[in-house]
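User: Sequence in, structure out. Go.
Assistant: Echoing your sequence, followed by the structure tokens.
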Amino acid sequence: MTWVITSLCQEKEDMACVEVCPVDCIVKRTNPDPNWPVQLYIDPEECISCGVCEPECPWEAIYEDEQVPEIFEADIAKNAAIVECRDDFEVPDREDVDTPSPDEVEANKAKWGFTG
């Protein structure tokens, strides 16, 4: 089992999950690429499956790979694919941003067609 960051993280700036990860397996792409959405990813080879990241994500974007909602199943492969190009990713610096309101979280889910 590993953890997956879903598309709910796209274009979001909160990195609370990065701060709590004990093994620095949460990364972002270092240079733009249209094949890689701007979001955080979990390196499945470095993840120790501790789960401390999940409750820290205010966007509710992190799931165990076996619990990823069907609408986000492609994100499992996307997170796994960073292993092939790991040099293009780095652990980001934490930035202070406002925590989203519950309404903003629900609006983000609705944008993706997720009602869970």
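User: And one key feature?
Assistant: The longest helix spans residues 102-111.
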